[in-house]
Amino acid sequence: MTEKAQRKALLAEYKQQRPAAGVYRITNQRTQRALLGSSLNLPSVQAKLEFARSTNTPSALDHRLGPDIRQFGLAAFTFEVLEVLETRPEMTAAQIQADLAALEALWRERQDPARLY
Q1: Which CB contacts under 8 angstroms, 24+ apart, belong to 21-24?
Q2: pLDDT at 14
Q3: What class is the 18-115 domain?
Q4: What's the pLDDT at 7?
Q5: Are 42 and 20 in contact (CB under 8 A)?
Q6: Of the chain's two ends, which shows fewer C-beta atoms within 10 Å, N or C?
Q7: Are 68 and 31 in contact (CB under 8 A)?
Q8: Domain ranges of the chain
Q9: Residue 96 gets which letter from DSSP?
């Protein structure tokens, strides 16, 4: 296989792969309050938290976390994937988003509303 054909095949394979979609929680370990959310790209949400920590840029995260970040610092927050959504190649982004909304609603029912941002 030529280098150009191999690169084309790798690019096609990359485009077919979808990042993990699912429900996540960012928890303040000091207060036990949590931000519950869902994303089509869970690794990007985790990367935002890591970026915010490495650059000391809390604005990279959801604004609702701002007051607690200023009070407790970024080190007080942890990222946790609660559930990964099984996706199929034929699913559109809108279908995945609808499934994520339903999955997030189920997780919200399990949480204490007083502990959510």
Answers
A1: 21/84, 21/85, 21/87, 21/96, 21/100, 22/81, 22/82, 22/83, 22/84, 22/85, 22/100, 22/103, 23/81, 23/82, 23/83, 23/85, 23/100, 23/103, 23/104, 23/107, 24/79, 24/80, 24/81, 24/82
A2: 66
A3: alpha beta
A4: 86
A5: yes
A6: N
A7: yes
A8: 18-115
A9: H
Amino acid at 7: R
Q: Which residues touch 3 (CB under 8 Å, ≥6 apart)?
A: none
Residue 42, judged by CB atoms within 10 A of its CB (0-12, 13-18, 19+), counts as buried
Sign of CA dihedral 38, 40, 42, 48: negative
The label of the residue with tokens 């604005």 reads: 59
3-state percent helix, strand, coil for the chain, nearest multiple of 5: 55, 20, 25
